[in-house]
Fold:
Amino acid sequence: MKNCAIVGTQWGDEGKGKIVHFLAEKADVIVRYQGGNNAGHTIIFDGKKFVCHLIPSGILENDKICLIGNGVVFDPIEFINELEELEQAGYSCKGRLFVSDCAHTILPYHRLLDAAKEKAAKNKIGTTKKGIGPAYTDKAARQGIRLAEYIDDDAFQKLLSANLESKAEDLNCDIKALKSEIMEGRNAIVAKLRNFVADTSILLADAIKDDKKVVFESAQGTMLDIDHGTYPFVTSSNPVSGAAYCGSGIGPGAIQEVIGIAKAYTTRVGEGPFPTELDDAIGQKMRKIGGEFGATTGRPRRCGWFDAVVVRTAARLNSLTGIALTKIDVLDSFEKIKVCVGYKMQGKTLTAMPANRFAYEQLQPEYIELDGWMSDTSSATSYQDLPKKAQDYIAKLEELCEVPVQIVSVGPDKAATIVR
Structure:
């Protein structure tokens, strides 16, 4: 196994958690490099369901080192809650889970600002209200509080006072009471938290020097990237593979493979463009069979046909070496299956998403139609076990996206995974 980055190729929720957990079996180190606890990576393992929000999806492999990199915005209280859930389930994390001392913290005032901004917005983004955007805003404005300062009593008090004073007007609440609440919550967990804080850049560099195998895990998806996604309906960080370097504290050359996770159809949570969305009985059928509800928010996901324009864009932006195709079993009962191969806009055919946000609503998907296989794929244990028409569907996606499909997921459990 080579060092590889795992990225979402659509609008998130592609099944990254399962694939990272699957690949973690052969890895030594798993690194989460961006995003925050707005992620929800669902893993079905030994008949149990786990949802990782901050902690890397490889944590369920008991002998693996898991790192949360400096590119992540880190909610200390949510981390401790997630940690304790894992410990109660029998997974020991101490000594093999570390968080970068340079990661910026999410504090209660970030969540308050996030919710207030979304409530007041005329054109809503669909934020999870977890404080992700405001925390990244503070980071860019050089007002953030990093974890090294959060665990330092004197440094945190000074920085907290200064931040609350500067945000008092926007918060519009009892600042003294809010400060007391923040200090109380912080003091209850800080002793335990200190056991997990480290310079993860050095830990990772040492592991790579010792020829350890590393999986870099992203959150969200390429089309939610703040630079390359469907702006402004995006997240506040860079889920693309290039961000794995700066978000983990290692240099170019450390990653040899990039696996793009693509759902066999397309989903999206929240607002924003979605050219292949099916607001009809077919979309409802996809949602019901696929259990398409957000792992973090619980919101029903919007569903539609596979968009090869989107995944081909992700292939270019991430330098994909392979695709892991998930949830193909959800399409088992569809007689006909469509794939978007381009967009029509003002009489022209587009082969990429336009940058102008006002053009999104004008996009009309151009489809090809393929025969469905109308048979069960969930029991397949090899590629040859898949129905011929399912293999034809995969071959067409490979052709359109210009990347080989190396992994096929035929169910939510780790065991329901085919490697070609």
Observations:
- The two ends are 14 Å apart (CA to CA).
